[in-house]
Structures are given as C-alpha cells and as structure tokens.
Request: fold
Amino acid sequence: RRTDGRSAVAGAVAGVLANLALAAWTPGVSWLWWNVAGFAVTLAVALLFGRGERPAGPAVSGGHRQAWLLVAFFALILTVLALVTAMV
Reply:
C-alpha cells in the first residue's frame, strides 16, 4: 500500500543492478543468493520511493500496459542472466 507503479519499477531496476553488481564483483557468491539480494534491494527501493498513499480510482488501472512492462522486464532479466552465464 505504500508503493506505486513507479516505485515498484525503480525497485525492480535497482534489484537487477544489485544482482549484476553481485555477479561482477563477488563471483564466489552462489547465484541462489542473488535472489535474496535482489529481493531485499527491490523492496527497500520500492518502499523508499513509494508515495505512501494509494491514488484514487479503480484498483487496476492501466493493466495491459503494466502487464507488457512486466513481460518486457522479465525478458530483460532472462537476457542479462544468459549474458552473465556466458561470461562465466
């Protein structure tokens, strides 16, 4: 309830960047810990940049646009993981 779409996207981008940094600077860390680090960073950034209030209006607005954004972001994550795996 304390976040909005922009803060969630900012959190997701920060989480992916944290995973990339973890992969690049600490190669000895298992990739399973990337999930924990990415989640923690995503949650922290989303809560930090959240507006604290829900906007007025229907519970789901712009659902199709947000769905495509999530699909595109998932494809980006898969691409990044494939590139990181190829470098290792």
